[in-house]
Amino acid sequence: MFLRMNRKVFAVLAVLTFTLAVFAGALMPVSAAPALQLTPFPTPTPGLDGRIIYQVQADDTLWRISAVSGVPLDELRQLNSLDVDAVIRPGQVLLLGVVEPPAVTLEPGAAQDPATLPTPTPTALADASAICVLLYLDENGDAIRQEQEIALADGEVSVTERLGAYSQKQTTTFFDEPVCFENIPPGEYLVTMALPGGFNRTTELSVTVELVPGDTSYLNFGTQPTEAFEPLTEQLDTGDGGGGSGGLVIAVVGAGLLLAGVGVGVWAVISNKRRFSAGDD
Q1: Burial state string for 38-71 with b = 16 or more CB within 10 A and e = fewer than 16
Q2: Phi and psi, residue 268, nearest 5°
Q3: What CATH architecture applies to the domain 129-227?
Q4: Could you report the per-residue pLDDT of 196-213, keeping only the tens digit for each?
Q5: Taking the complete model, does pTM exceed 0.70, yes or no?
Q6: Superfamily for domain range 51-98
C-alpha cells in the first residue's frame, strides 16, 4: 500500500518538476546570437582628377561595395577590369566612377599649384582645314587622272601659307591614297610638287589654293617617264611625220630654189633682148 502511494507521489512530483522547468524556461530571456559587425564603409570622395577611389577594407566583397556605394556590380567589375571570379583583398584600390573635377577656390593673390591644375581635354579644331595631294602616272598624258593610273612615290610636296603662318613638306608614296596636311588654319596656300628623277610633268607643278574653315582640298599632279617624250623629240629632229620642223625646212629650201630659177630665167630674157638690139644697130 505504501509502495503504491509512493509511486503516485513520485509521478505527481515528476510532472510538477517538468512543468516548473518548462515555465521557468519560457520566462527566462533567450540570448540572441551576436550580430555580424562589418567594417565601417568610408565615404569615397572624388580626387582632384575627378576619380572616385575606394580602398578595400577587411571583410569587404564586391557585392557589399556595390550595394553600399550604389555602383552596379557589373559596372564595378568593368571599371576595374575584374572578371566574375575575381577576389578582392584588403588594401586593394578600386575605381567607383569619374566625375567633373572639383573647382579649386584660391585666396586673393594666391598662386595655384600646377600639380592641382586639371588636365585639359584636347578638342578638335572646328575651323581646321586640310590639303591632300596625289602624284600619279599620267599614262595618256591628258593631265586628268584616270581610274587605272597608279600613284607614284618620291614626289616632294611643299605646302606654304602665303603669309608664312604654315609651311610643311611630305613625300608621296605608292599607296593609292594622297598625302594629307591636316589641321592647318584657313588661308591662301602655295602647293608645289618636286618630281622624282626620270619624270617629266604633264600638269602644272605649282598651284594656289584658298582654304575656307573646315574645307579639304584635293590636288592631283600628273607625270610621265622621260622616255615617253623621246619619240616625239626624235621625230622633230629627223623630220619624220610630214608636219614637223624638217618638212618646214624642205619647203623653205624648195621655195628658195624656185625663186632662184625664176631670177635666172628673167636675166636670160633681158640679156637676149639687149643682144638683138645691138645687132640691129
Answers
A1: eeeeeebebeeeeebebebbeebebeebbeebeb
A2: -65, -40
A3: Sandwich (2.60)
A4: 999 999 999 999 999 888
A5: no
A6: LysM domain (3.10.350.10)
